[in-house]
Every structure is written in structure tokens, then in C-alpha cells.
Amino acid sequence: MPNNGVSGNSADGIARKWNYKAASDVTGLTNGFDINMSNKLFSSLMKLIRPDKIEIDNATASSALDTLGYSVEKLMFELMHPCNLLLARCAWLGQIYDCNKIFKTVKANEGFCCGFNYHYDLTNNYNNDDSWLANITTTDEENLQPDNSSEYLPGVDEILRVPGTGRDIGLSVALNIDGENYKSSVRQFVGGTVLIHDPIDYPDVGAQTATVIPGHVMVLTLSGTKIRSSNDIRNIPLRKRMCLFDGESPGERKYSYQTCISECIQQNIYGSCGCLPFFFPDEHPDTRTCYLTDVDCILARRRSLSRVQLSHINDCKCLPQCNDETFDVVGESIRTDDIGYDSELTHGLNAKNTSFLYVYFRDGTYLEYRKETILGWDSLLASFGGIFGLCLGGSVLSFVEFLYYMTKELLAVRGKKRALRNDNLPPASKLFVSRSTNNDLVKTEKCVFHVWTEQFPRQNPKSTFAS
């Protein structure tokens, strides 16, 4: 099975140092907008991920965004914990790699995250496409080092497949949560959120989550389940098989049932407010991004949905995949102790402030479910032939012979009836045509045929018959 995708971010959404930088920009450009109001603004921004009551009015929120000159997406990206600071050290299959090269900034239902083996949508490369993003995701050391295009980078160009099982045959990451420098949070604790998902899925519906706490070791062991459908199922109409094969869905991206459900739910919740969240997976240029001014509408929409008990999944036109892979995750969190342990991953790091994450498969086997056609038309014909031969001593050839002789007999009977009908007609010599001499009868132009029961004597050709 392919290795799972791993996306992680800090549970505290806004770093204090970047919060102060943006707050100073707002304070310097807007009259009457002090640091206290700036703090309320950036604390309220987390409500864009978890909608809740905000601390500032709509006018102030709109004025601050206009002053910064940022889009909502850019503002939230500016305030995230940068991946080059969150990821202290990374290893794949026991080999150390540059975290900035094998992890990429991606979108998830938790906002902006750092993704490994993430292949959902790579059209938005936040590390390279935009200059305002490149200033944050790159470091001075990276700019000085030449790019070696021949260097192998696991999980960047293609989906990884794990060659084995065990702690050393997987992903190992040292995380610098740095809770002291955070200002606002979407949760009540300091830690990092890890999302385990299929590499082609958007990390939302179906993603397994775990929390990494500073000074702890988080071990995530995986087991896989695969669903595989035979090619014969393609011949079954879609309304009967109720699943989609690769290439049957519109669009260039590979179809994912979880992603389809996620997009549908987001559109049902946010669509009535005329906006979509900044972490929405696809680009919709005709739809604006939700901001703090839309939070009240989103909350009202969510409450109305709970009252009518509307099932989003039943309303979504999404079908499961005929071939799919899922992962089950078992997590274990252990507090680190200073016992003199040293490894290439932990060397030189403060174990009390650093979190360590290990992700690997716990078993070399996986559970597979197969979808196959139990009885096709050819199998049905063979089954009837076998039953017929077993019970009556016949075969399919016997059935064909029976049809042949039955058809032949029907044609023969039909021919005999036609011949018998022709034999009942009198000979032409016994037929003559006459007209009635009774004037009282209704005149008619029809000819009346009479049959003479006796043979006419041979007469002179000059003689005539009167009518």
C-alpha cells in the first residue's frame, strides 16, 4: 500500500511575533486603532477556522483588512507558524532530510499546515508561486545553497510506498511547538495537530487526527484496508453499482469520495452566506473568501441546519470509489525523560521543549475487500446448462436442437394448413359469373359466383351464355 499523507500544524493558530508585526502595521496606518484593538482583531481571526462569537464589530474588522491591503488568505498565511520553524528535524526511513524540501505548505480543515506525501492539489505551491509567500517559507540558508535537482526528495514528486514495517521504516519528525510565542488558538491547549489521510484526499472528512504535546513522544502506528473492484463491474450501470472508477469523474484531478463530501458540506454551510472559507481546497474566482463580517451569517446558518436536521451527505452527489484505501491509526503519547538517550534525530535538541513524532506501519499485511460480479450473463447461461444437464441429462446443445426441431415442426404444420386451404377451393371449370334478372332486387355491380355441380357439355365455340 502507498504510505499515508501526513499534514501537521500547531494547535495555536497565530504566532505572537507575526501577530505583533501585523498589529503594528495596522496601528501605524489607522487612526484610533491601538494595540489592544489589534490583539482583539487577530484573536478573532481564529473564528474563521472555528466560527464563534467575535470580539470586534464588522466595521472595525473591514477597516483593518483594507488598511493592511491583504486578502484573507494572505493574512491567515502571514499569521501561521512557518514550517521552517515548526519542523526542527525530519527523517524518512532513518535518513535525515531537509524538512523545508520534503514538507510543503498546504491547506487543510485546520487552516494552513505542513504536509508530507501530500498529493491532493499541487497547483498552489505556496513555497514558490508568490513572492509574498516565499519571503516567509524560505530562509537565508536556503537562498545561499544551490538547488540540486538530482537530489532525491521523498514524497515530493510521487506518492511514497513503504518498503516495510517498524519504527525505523517510516517518518520521524522533531517539532518545535514553541507555545510561549503564540497569541491565539483554536483549542484550549498548546500542542500540534497531526492529520493522517490518503495522499490524494483533502485533509478533512475521513482524516485521522492526533495531538502532539511539547516534551512528549507521539507514536502513530498504521494499518491499511483496501477495496478493489474487478473490471467486470465497469459493465454494470452506474445506478446499480453505485461507485466510481478512476477516470469516470469529470475534472483532471483524481476523484476522491472524501474530498467530494468535504466540498459539498462546506458549500452547504458557507454557500448561503455568499462566501467560502480561506482553507477551502479549490479555487473559486467568482466566490469571495469568508471574513469576520460573515461569522454571524455562518453561525445562523449552522443553527438553522441543526433545527431542520438536514443531512448534507444525502444531498451531496458523491459516490464512493470502486478502488479505495483507508488507514486505521493507533496513537501513543509518552512523556520524554532526561535519561541520556541520543540519536541522529534527537541530537542537540531540548527534549523538554521539543515534540517527537513517529509514523509507521505496524504490520506488513493489510485487509482487502474485493468487489466482483457474482453472476454475469455468460455465467448464468453456463449455470442453466449445468443444472439442465445434471437434472435432465441434457446440455446446451440439446436445448438448441430442441429449438431447431420445434421451429421445423411449426413451419411444417403451417405449410400443411396452407395446402389444405387451397385444396378446398372448387376447380375453375365449375365456376361461372351471372347477374340477377330480378329487377325488384337492389341493384348491385358486384359479381356473384355460382358453382355448377355438373360438368358442362362441350359446346360450339360460337355459342354464348346469356347473363
Automatic annotation (TrEMBL):
GO function term, MF aspect, one: ligand-gated sodium channel activity
UniProt topology in membrane: Multi-pass membrane protein
Top-rank taxon, per record: Eukaryota
The UniProt record lists the keyword Transport: yes
Cell compartment(s), UniProt: Membrane
Record keywords: Ion channel, Ion transport, Membrane, Sodium, Sodium channel, Sodium transport, Transmembrane, Transmembrane helix, Transport
Transmembrane segments: 380-406
The keyword Transferase appears for this protein: no
Pfam annotation, one family: ASC
InterPro entries xrefs: ENaC (IPR001873)
Family the UniProt entry places it in: Belongs to the amiloride-sensitive sodium channel (TC 1.A.6) family.
Official protein name in the record: Sodium channel protein Nach
Organism (species): Dufourea novaeangliae (Sweat bee)
